[in-house]
Amino acid sequence: MSENPEPASAASGGISMRTMEIATALFFFAVGSLVVYDSHRLGSSWGSDGPEAGYFPFFIGMLICISSAVILCQAIWGRNAGRSGVFVEWQPLRQVMAVLLPALVFVLGIQVIGLYVASAIYIAGFMRWLGKYSWVKSVLLGVAVAAAAFATFEIWFQVPLFKGAFDPLSRLGY
User: Fold this and answer.
1) If you average pLDDT over every residue of the chain, what do you get?
2) What pTM was estimated for this model as a whole?
3) 172, HSE (Cβ side, Cα atoms, 13 Å)
């Protein structure tokens, strides 16, 4: 009997480490490429009065690209490429996505309907969906929290927060 058990394969129920290493390397290579491109656009050479605006970011972007390429090569052809275990199983991934995807919708909702209305909907939605509270409790608490935030920032501190492109609170005079 071996002391080091073999790691579970991704086929048994999850995303493999190798797949995530490849995806992460490709993502950071794309980010590094964007930095290199934009730095070159700004000027990435040494001018008559010193370094141009994109000089240092250009080399940082190059380091990110080179590092990502090395990680990608190790993930594809390295000696541990065929023996990778599970990065995340499907059930925990579903639980993370159950929070992440609504959060992304919330952030996009802020752009359209503003922070206060989006917060009320987000809180009420989470209370109803994940907390299994009644619609009445969920909506009341969501509206109460958003109203408290509105009163705190808009009225007492007189600090306007983003109300969105649609601005549903414009009828209140704010």
Assistant:
1) 89
2) 0.67
3) 11
